[in-house]
Amino acid sequence: GKGTLYKLLFERHPDSFALSVSHTTRGPRPGEADGVDYHFVTKEAFDDLVSKDGFVEHATFGSNSYGTSKATIEEQSAKGKLVVLDIEM
């Protein structure tokens, strides 16, 4: 699936591509690390980013919100990397 494709892409081109780390209002699951799997934030912090146009995309599934921040993309782009977004549709 797409996870296999991402893995191959990043292994073969580590200096060219980066996977974006999304923000979420849900709590971390066992084994997940903040800033690695997701940026875990409060609902208030998430809503603040939305109000400040801080996301390139965001959505709510059930009671949890997810989004890709502009800052995350800009940070990786500044390193010369193309950012790959893993977005649920």
TrEMBL record:
Membrane-spanning residues: none
Keyword vocabulary terms for this entry: Kinase, Transferase
Gene Ontology cellular component annotations, sorted alphabetically: cytosol
InterPro entries from the UniProt entry: GK/Ca_channel_bsu, Guanylate_kin-like_dom, Guanylate_kinase_CS, P-loop_NTPase
UniProt keyword annotation of Transferase present: yes
Residues in Guanylate kinase-like domain copies: 1-89
GO molecular function: GMP kinase activity
Protein name as it appears in the record: Guanylate kinase
